[in-house]
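Project standup — Tuesday

K.O.: blocked on the structure for the chain from last sprint. Re-posting the sequence here as requested.
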Amino acid sequence: MTRTLVGRVDSLWRYPVKSMLGEQLKAVDVIPKGLLGDRSYAVWDRQTQRIASAKNPKKWAKLLEFQAKFLESPQTKESIPPVTFTMPDGSAAISNNRNIDAILSQALGRDVQLLAAVPATPSLDQYWPDLEGAANRDTITQLFMPSGTFFDSCSIHAITTSTLAQLQHLYPAGQFEPCRFRPNILIKPRSTETNFVENDWVGSRMVIGDEVCLSIDTACPRCVVTTVAQSDLPADLNILRTTTQHNNSIAGIRTSVLQSGTIRCGDLIWLE
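H.V.: unblocked you, prediction finished:
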């Protein structure tokens, strides 16, 4: 089988709570269903009986003002540790506080529950802004999530620095920081060219370091989350507009796990 060196791991990200800001890591274990601990928790809207997601920013944009980090690194999927929350007002909370649902409800302005177990048929609401060339425009659709997970679709999402640089070139006034795209793996390609390099990787296998192998299943279509204000980044619909106009809303790749192991920042990446 032909193997081609394409780059290295630039940074790693895990998101303990769906749609909240996550944590940057130096190394992480990969299990059959993704990064250990990724999207272990989610916020449940008691009124709609759906998962709260920044994909519907008119209701849930504030989720991206919360920072969630594990108290300690997860060791097994069966024993996920509590997470600490840095709240929008700067205060702190912890997931095993018996009043955590009331604390989150007050902060979010809705009656919510913190979930660690996935409902039978999890779903969320997704808002599609009115953008030329988009499949849906100014509408909300219901997205059914893969059974047994809090993922929208794939178990591991990756994007290259090349794609971010290309988008930045196309829209110089924008701020195309990795956190807007919420990758698990940011890849620095060997080539210094600015283009959508990973578009051509779909259908290949990606080997990372000495152990991990991922199947590159599809390109990753982007959504309104990339436009929502977070950290020091402003709300900017042109982030998604640029991606839609110049690469059919695609930025990054969706992958699934073929072989588990540990990946580290700096690990080399090959395509097979």
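K.O.: great, moving the ticket to review. The chain has a mean pLDDT of 96. The chain has one domain: 4-271.
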